[in-house]
Amino acid sequence: MVVDRIVLLSVWFGTILLLVLFTPRKKIREANVVFLFKQLVTWPLGLLVVEFHLIEYPVREFAYATQTSFAFEYFIYPATCVIYILRYPENKSRLKRIGWQLFWPTWMTLIEVVIERHTNLIDYIHWAWYWTWLSLSATFFLSLVYYRWFFRKGIGKAST
Questions:
Q1: Does any domain span residue 155?
Q2: pTM metric for this prediction
Q3: Three-class SS of residue 56?
Q4: Where exactly are the transmembrane stretches of this chain (predicted)?
Q5: Which of 89, 81, 61, 64 has the alpha carbon at shortest distance from 18?
Q6: Residue 50 included in any domain
Q7: What span, in angstroms and rounded, lies between the C-alpha atoms of 160 and 156?
Q8: Could you list the residue range(s) of the whole structural domain that residue 28 is in?
Q9: Which of 130, 111, 143 lies closest to 30, judged by CA?
Q10: Is there a domain that residue 156 lies in?
Q11: Residues 6+ apart with CB under 8 A from 79
């Protein structure tokens, strides 16, 4: 149980560090919009996954309030999505953009699988790694589409 808490705290601090290091100061407003949109998507999806007994989070924050992982659904996935979008290689080749879109859900899925196998933070009940990969890919892409729409990027001239 202590190891699980240490891993959870490490993931929290690692994510905070990533946000601080890779979020440009002049894009804080954009980061907030992306973060909140990703929360809007991941929080209800995370609740559904737990309610349908697909995933279980035996060790979690707020154990009496919710059965889902506050860290993953409410902070870690949205924070990594901020970096994914703000550092997206918009003006690079199609191959680099596709590589970027494949890299992020892949490395996050790998980390989740390692955490699932070696800790009590995540338990796959009726779930598999590819569902995580697909859901991350879909929600990252949806967040990118929303970001582009909200800030009018890729639709004529950018307003920011």
A1: no
A2: 0.88
A3: strand
A4: 6-23, 35-55, 67-86, 98-115, 127-147
A5: 81
A6: yes
A7: 12
A8: 2-150
A9: 143
A10: no
A11: 15, 16, 18, 19, 35
In a domain, 19, yes or no: yes
Rounded to the nearest angstrom, the gap between the alpha carbon of residue 36 and the centroid of all alpha carbons in its chain is 12
Q: Which two tokens stand for residue 28?
A: 């804080």
Distance between CA atoms of residues 44 and 49, nearest Å? 9
Let me know the angle formed at the C-alpha of 105 by 102 and 111, rounded to the nearest 5 degrees.
Answer: 130
SS3 state at 66? coil
What pLDDT, in 10s, does the model give residues 9-34?
A: 999 999 999 999 999 999 999 999 99
Quick: pLDDT tens for 67-99.
888 888 899 999 999 999 999 998 999 999 999
| Residue at 53: amino acid letter | H
Q: Amino acid identity, residue 94? A: R
Q: How many domains does the chain fold into?
A: 1
Cβ atoms within 10 Å of 40's Cβ, excluding its own: 13
